Amino acid sequence: MQGAVTPLRGLVAASLVTISALCAAQDHALRLIQESYLESGLGMHGFQQQATWTELHAALNDNYSAVLSNFRYGNDSSLDEDYLQYDGKSYALRAGRMRSAFGFGTWSDTWYNPVISLPIARFMPLSGSINLSNFNSGVEARLWNGPVQAEVAVLNQNPSDEQILPGRMDFDRARLQVNKGSLIVGFNALVQNGQFSGSAPRALGLDYRWTAPRLVVRGEAMQGFGRAGSAKGFYTDATYRPPRFFRTQFGARIEGFRDDADFAASTLYTLGARQIVTPNLALTLNYSWGNVPNFLYSMRGWHLQAALAVRFE
User: What pTM does this model have?
Assistant: First the structure.
C-alpha cells in the first residue's frame, strides 16, 4: 500500500507546484489554509490532537479553479477534497474527489458551528456502503435558475483514502434545492446504478436551513433502503449569536438514529458555546446527554475543542 501511496503524493506535490506557477503567471488568487483541532472530553487525558486539515485553493483563471487538500484524524491520514471546477454563468462542473453533497456535508457545515461532533446519521451506514461521511470520486454538475438549484452526479461512492480518480462510477446522486425568502429546502437521492427499487442500496434525504437575524435553524432527515440493511436518522441544530457579541455563538442539537438491527439506536441532546478568541483561535464547549450504544458512549458528557487556523492569501 505504501508503495502505491508514494507516487500519488508525488503527483499531488507536482500539482501544487504547477498550480502555484499558473496562478503566479496569471496573477490569480492562491489561498492556503491549515487548521488544527485539539479536544478534551470523556475518556481523554488533557487535550489531544484530534484533526488537521490543509487546503490549497487556486483560481486558475476567471472560470477554472482547483482544490487540493489533506485530512488527518488521529493516526489516520487521507486525501480530502481534490478536484477541478469550472464555473459558468448559470452552471458549474466539478471532477475529482469531493465531500458528499447529500445534505450538509461541506467542511464549514461540519466544523464551523457550536456543536463539535458530527451528527450520528452522517457517519453511520444508511444502507450497505452508503455512508454520508464518505468521500465521492466522479463528476458533478450544478445548475441554477433564480431560487431553484439542481445537482446531478455520477460517482464512485466510496473511494480509497488516497484515490482521486474514480475506479468504477456505480452510484448516481441528485439534489433539488429551493430558496424561498429566509428558508432553503433541499431534496436528495443517492442510488446504486440508478435502481430506485429492489435490493440495491439507496438513500433519500431532506434538509432545511432557516435564517433570521442572529439565529440559524437547520436540520436533516435521511433514510437508507436495500437488502444490505436500512437505517434512518435526523438532527436539528439551532445557532444563536447574541447582540453586540459578534464572536460568540450558542448552539443546541437534538438528533436520533435507528437501524433495522437496533445496533446503533440513539437519541442524543447537545448544548454548546463557541467563542472566536482571535482570527486564528476558536474555543468550543459542549455538553451532551441521552441514550447511545456503548461504542458511541464517548459522545456524551463534556467536550472542549480548540481550533487553530493559519491562512496565507
Answer: 0.86
Domain 2-312 top-level CATH class = mainly beta
pLDDT digits (tens, 9 = 90+) for 7-51: 444 444 445 445 445 545 455 589 999 999 999 987 777 788 889
Using one digit for the tens of pLDDT, what is the confidence trace for 108-135? Answer: 998 899 999 999 999 999 988 888 988 8
Give the Cα-Cα-Cα angle 278, 282, 284 (nearest 5 degrees): 150
63 touches 87 (CB < 8 A): yes
Contact 38, 51 (CB under 8 A): no
Contacts within 8 Å (CB) and 24+ apart, 181-188: 182/210, 182/211, 182/212, 183/208, 183/209, 183/210, 184/208, 184/209, 184/210, 186/103, 188/102, 188/103, 188/222
- Alpha-carbon distance of 35 to 52, in angstroms, equals 6
Q: How deeply is 106 buried, as exposed, middle or buried, from its count of CB atoms within 10 A (0-12, 13-18, 19+)? A: middle
